[in-house]
Automatic annotation (TrEMBL):
Residues 100-184, 228-317, 327-417 form the Ig-like domain. Keywords: Actin-binding, Cytoplasm, Disulfide bond, Immunoglobulin domain, Phosphoprotein, Repeat. One of its GO terms (cellular component) is Z disc. Gene3D superfamilies: Immunoglobulins. It is found in: Cytoplasm, Myofibril, Sarcomere, Z line. Residues 1-27 are annotated as: Disordered. PROSITE patterns: IG_LIKE (PS50835). One of its GO terms (molecular function) is actin binding. This is Ig-like domain-containing protein. Belongs to the myotilin/palladin family. InterPro entries: Ig-like_dom, Ig-like_dom_sf, Ig-like_fold, Ig_I-set, Ig_sub, Ig_sub2. It holds the Pfam family I-set.
Length: 475
């Protein structure tokens, strides 16, 4: 009872005793080996009653699915070693070409350690695609005797493992490529150990007794790790001061990497204007709002996990914010008058941001820039000048300067008079009338008043007479 099928059937009691006496040493070895076989078989039946030695399909978690999607994304965009297939694409058919398509995709399997497993898929395409196999993102060579790769004429491709081990646990990906494109799909293999069998092995092998299912229940992290790899990274940027600036990147890796942002080698810490976000799609973002001149420089994003780190850098240029200020008149136009034929300048000083545009008017008529004898000048300090040379009688009138920018408008006005060349201001003649003073008794010396008095007196008399004349005129 309990012996394997190869054991002899139960004989009669006398025959059994005779057989034992004649071959006692041989039976001891045989029983010892048979005992180990029975224990191993019972361990499979008792502890893995729900797991057969044959491969079983199972449903993977969403995390494992995302991991396989990232592996496929990377493989389809990175160069690979030459395929071991004998297919060549040097001669491309002139007819219709079709990119590779999966008619049957890989499945996910769960097997016990030591059991065989086979991944199978079917690929179609024109021309016939080349096939590449990968394990955990690393290409499997056809020279590897542990894996047997086959390809049928109908496009069926298979990867077979005769006896699985704990090292075979992982993600398996097949990629098909032809000149029209690349396509890939993945399947996961879970290899479960034998806890009862581990009791018969050395103590140093005890870490292999636990099944993969028990390890996944106890440890949230996977045993397979991948170095961080940036799938999306921004280039150098130019942004405007005062606005929102967003730096987006996407990174893969296992375990999920942690991101650190640096500005000119110094860490960027989250605050009211700097935020780090992660979207559901796996895109990491650095938000800067509002952007200032202090945010300009070289940004470096470093992704780190247990297997290592990866990074990228970019230069951010911040365009200074334009300050708007309405024009202001610092020096107004002044009323002026000049003789005809002389040059005349109407000058003013106005500032504003952005620098204003100037318009000149005479009365209600705008003065064109290309008018004869009239030129307009200005400089960066706000100095504005209207030059007329030579001035004519027709140039007389009211002149207005208007300064306008995005923030506002301002204007000022002045009068220009033009005089004729012959016109001079001649003072009116003074009338002298005799008075009843002592000047009337100086008849012997005539009207020479200065000779009749001393210099001091003559000065005083002249002053008095002048005042009397002015008073006479006013009266």
């Amino acid at each position: 009872m309990g012996l394997p099928r190869s054991a002899p059937s139960v004989p009669s009691q006398g025959r059994m005793k005779k057989h034992i006496k004649s071959s006692q040493p041989v039976n001891d070895d045989y029983i010892r080996e048979t005992k180990n076989a029975v224990i191993l078989d019972l361990g499979k039946k008792v502890n893995f009653s729900d797991v057969r030695s044959n491969q079983q399909e199972y449903k993977i978690s969403s995390f494992e699915q995302r991991l396989m999607n990232e592996i496929e994304f990377r493989l389809e965009r990175t160069p690979v070693d030459e395929s071991d297939d004998e297919i060549q694409h040097d001669e491309i058919p002139t007819g219709k070409c079709i990119a590779p398509i999966f008619d049957k995709r890989l499945k996910h399997f769960r097997v016990t350690e030591g059991s065989p497993v086979t991944f199978t898929c079917k690929i179609v395409g024109i021309p016939v695609p080349k096939v590449y196999w990968f394990k955990d993102g690393k290409q499997i060579s056809k020279r590897n005797e542990h894996f047997k790769m086959r390809r049928e004429g109908d496009g069926t491709c298979s990867l077979h493992i005769d006896s699985t081990t704990g090292d075979d646990d992982g993600n398996y990906t097949i990629m098909a490529a032809n000149p029209q494109g690349r396509i890939s799909c993945s399947g996961h293999l879970m290899v479960q150990g034998l806890p009862l069998r581990s009791r018969l092995t050395a103590a140093g092998q005890s870490h292999r007794v636990r099944s993969r299912a028990q390890e996944r229940d106890k440890e949230p992290l996977q045993e397979r790790f991948f170095r961080p790899h940036f799938l999306q990274a921004p280039g150098d940027m130019v942004a405007h001061e005062g606005r929102l600036c967003r730096l987006d990147c996407k990174v893969s890796g296992l375990p999920p990497p942690e991101l650190t942002w640096l500005l000119n080698g110094q860490p960027v810490l989250p605050d009211t204007s700097h935020m780090m976000l992660v979207r559901e799609t796996g895109v990491h973002s650095l938000l800067i709002d509002p952007l200032t001149q202090r945010d300009a420089g070289t940004y470096t994003c470093v992704a780190t996990n247990k297997t290592g780190q990866n990074s990228f850098s970019l230069d951010l240029t911040v365009v200074a914010k334009e300050v708007k200020k309405a024009p202001v008149i610092l020096e107004k136009l002044q009323n002026s008058g000049v003789p005809e034929g002389h040059p005349v300048r109407l000058e003013c000083r106005v500032i504003g941001m952005p620098p204003p545009v100037f318009y000149w008017k005479k009365g209600n008529e705008t003065i064109p820039f290309t008018r004869d004898r009239i030129s307009m000048h200005q400089d960066t300090t706000g100095y504005v000048c209207l030059l007329i040379q030579p001035a004519k009688k027709s140039d007389a009138g009211w002149y207005t300067l208007s300064a306008k920018n995005e923030a506002g408008i301002v204007s000022c006005t002045a009068r220009l008079d033009i005089y004729a060349q012959w016109h001079h201001q001649i003072p009116p003649p003074m009338s002298v009338r005799p008075s009843g003073s002592r000047y009337g008794s100086l008849t012997s010396k005539g009207l020479d008043i200065f000779s009749a008095f001393s210099s001091t007196e003559s000065t005083m008399v002249y002053s008095c007479s002048s005042r009397s004349v002015v008073e006479s005129d006013e009266l």
